[in-house]
């Protein structure tokens, strides 16, 4: 422990800038640079160029949103171990930022898919939180982490979070409804 502490202190000391030396310039933020370029293009009267630059900037923001979504799916969930994180391109049809991760426990596999901020989701999610309507439709309704969760068939659990995020938990190999709801 003492050696680890010394190493940590030495690392911190080496990483500090030398006194009197100007700090290294911060790396340019591609989004900020792009905004400046878009504004310059706009001031020149090039609306098509401005629109193209703004589309590029939206892709940057969407990729950051997908990266943040990735933090929601840890490497393990209890005893379940995850494989690599997968993301879908949000620039495709519907513009849905989506990530997925498959977890395994022995022979059982469950895939967790998270989708957010889509026009289609804004129409679907209010239905998933309306428990009375779901019960009338003979759907099994659960509360998971304080959110409404609905079984779709016997192998898919859908959870609405904040009426803008949809979490699908799909049994691919032997996981039971009870395990999906846990």
Short description:
40% of the residues lie in helices and 28% in strands.
Question: How would you characterize the overall build of this protein?
Answer:
The protein is of the alpha+beta class and 182 residues long. Strands 1, 2, 3, 4, 5, 6, 7, 8 and 9 form a 9-stranded antiparallel beta sheet that branches. Helix 2 packs antiparallel against helix 3. The chain is elongated. The two termini are 38 Å apart.
Strand-helix topology:
Layout: H1 2-15, H2 30-43, H3 47-70, E1 76-77, E2 80-82, E3 86-88, E4 97-105, E5 108-116, H4 119-128, H5 131-136, E6 141-144, E7 147-152, E8 156-161, E9 165-173, H6 177-181
Antiparallel strand pairs: 1-2, 2-4, 3-4, 4-5, 5-9, 6-7, 7-8, 8-9
Helix pairs in contact: 2-3
Largest sheet: 9 strands, antiparallel
Q: What gross morphology would you assign? A: elongated
Specify the structural class.
alpha+beta
Helix content: 40-55%
SSE string:
HHHEEEEEHHEEEEH
Question: pLDDT under 50 segments (min length 5)?
Answer: 1-20
CA-based gyration radius: 23 Å
Secondary structure tally, helices:
6
Q: How far from one another are the termini? A: 38 Å
Mean pLDDT score: 76
| Oligomer designation | single chain
Q: Give the beta-strand count.
A: 9
* Beta-strand fraction estimate: 25-35%
